[in-house]
Design a protein that fits this description.
Oligomer: single chain
Number of strands: 7
Distance between the termini: 30 Å
Shape: globular
Order of helices and strands: HHEHEHEEHEHEHHEH
Strand order of the largest sheet: 4-3-2-1-5-6-7
Number of helices: 9
Length: about 230
C-alpha cells in the first residue's frame, strides 16, 4: 500500500520515487476527467448498503434523473450507494464514471462504469471528485462520506473551488448533524451564517436534481465563496 508506506514516520528513502508515482496518478486522473466531456455530478454514500436499502434506491433514482438532464455521474466506483448511482446513470443511457481506490479489504469496481480508474492515493482520487463536479449529492454514509462532505465544504468555504451546491439527501440522517453545526459551531462562532447556506437538505429526488440543474443553468458556481476567515480551522 503506497499510502501506508508514505505516511509512516520513517521514510524508506525513495522520496523521488514516491513523488513521481503520485504525480503520475494525478496525471492519469486529470486525463480521465478530460474524457468525461460534459458537466458532472459527484455522488457520495455508503459502500455497505445493499440493493434493498432505501439509500440505494434513492441514489439510483437521483442519478438517473441527473443523467437524463445531461450530467455525467461520478462516484467512488465501488459497491453500495456508488453502485446505485452508476447504475442509475446507465439506466438513463448517461455517462457513468468511477474513481476507485485500492484498499486492504479489496473494494472492487461495480459493473456499471463507462470510465473507471483505480487510485493508490486517496488525495489524488479526492481531487478528481471535485475537478469533475458541478455539484455534490451526498447520501447516508460513514467516515469516508463525512470526509468527502467536510472536505468539499472547506474547499468552498475558503474559495479554493467555485461555490456549487452540496445536497444532503435524507433529512432524517443528516438533519441532526446540520442542527449540531447550527447549535454548536454557529452559536460559538466557529462558522459563519453563510457557511450553513452551503448545505441543502432534502428528501425529494426531484428537488435534489432541481438544485443541481438550477445552479448550473444560473452559473451560480461562477462566483467563488468569499470567506471572512483567514483559514479553515
Amino acid at each position: 500500500m503506497d499510502d501506508r508506506r508514505l505516511l509512516e514516520r520513517r521514510e524508506d528513502g525513495d522520496l523521488a520515487g514516491h513523488v513521481e508515482r503520485i504525480a503520475d496518478e494525478f496525471l492519469q486522473g486529470f486525463t480521465a476527467v478530460e474524457q468525461i466531456g460534459r458537466p458532472g455530478v459527484t455522488i457520495f454514500g455508503s459502500a455497505r448498503v445493499r440493493e434493498d436499502h432505501p439509500a440505494y434506491r434513492q441514489a439510483r433514482h437521483v442519478a438517473r434523473r441527473l443523467a437524463e438532464a445531461g450530467f455525467a455521474i461520478v462516484t467512488g466506483g465501488g459497491p453500495g450507494v456508488m453502485e446505485a448511482a452508476n447504475r442509475g446513470a446507465r439506466d438513463a443511457g448517461g455517462l457513468s464514471v468511477g474513481f476507485n481506490i485500492e484498499l486492504p479489504h479489496e473494494q472492487h469496481e461495480n459493473p456499471y462504469l463507462d470510465i473507471d480508474l483505480t487510485f493508490n492515493h486517496f488525495y489524488a482520487r479526492k481531487t478528481m471528485f471535485v475537478k469533475a463536479a458541478e455539484g455534490f449529492v451526498i447520501f447516508p454514509g460513514g467516515f469516508g462520506t463525512l470526509d468527502e462532505l467536510f472536505e468539499a465544504l472547506t474547499l468552498i468555504q475558503t474559495g479554493k473551488v467555485l461555490h456549487f451546491p452540496v445536497v444532503l439527501f435524507d433529512s432524517g440522517y443528516w438533519g441532526p448533524l446540520v442542527e449540531w453545526i447550527r447549535e454548536r459551531l454557529l452559536a460559538e462562532a466557529m462558522v459563519s451564517p453563510e457557511d450553513l447556506e452551503l448545505l441543502h437538505l432534502t428528501d425529494d429526488p426531484e428537488n435534489a436534481v432541481e438544485l443541481i440543474v438550477d445552479c448550473y443553468e444560473r452559473r451560480c458556481a461562477a462566483v467563488p465563496a468569499e470567506p471572512e476567515k483567514a483559514d479553515a480551522q
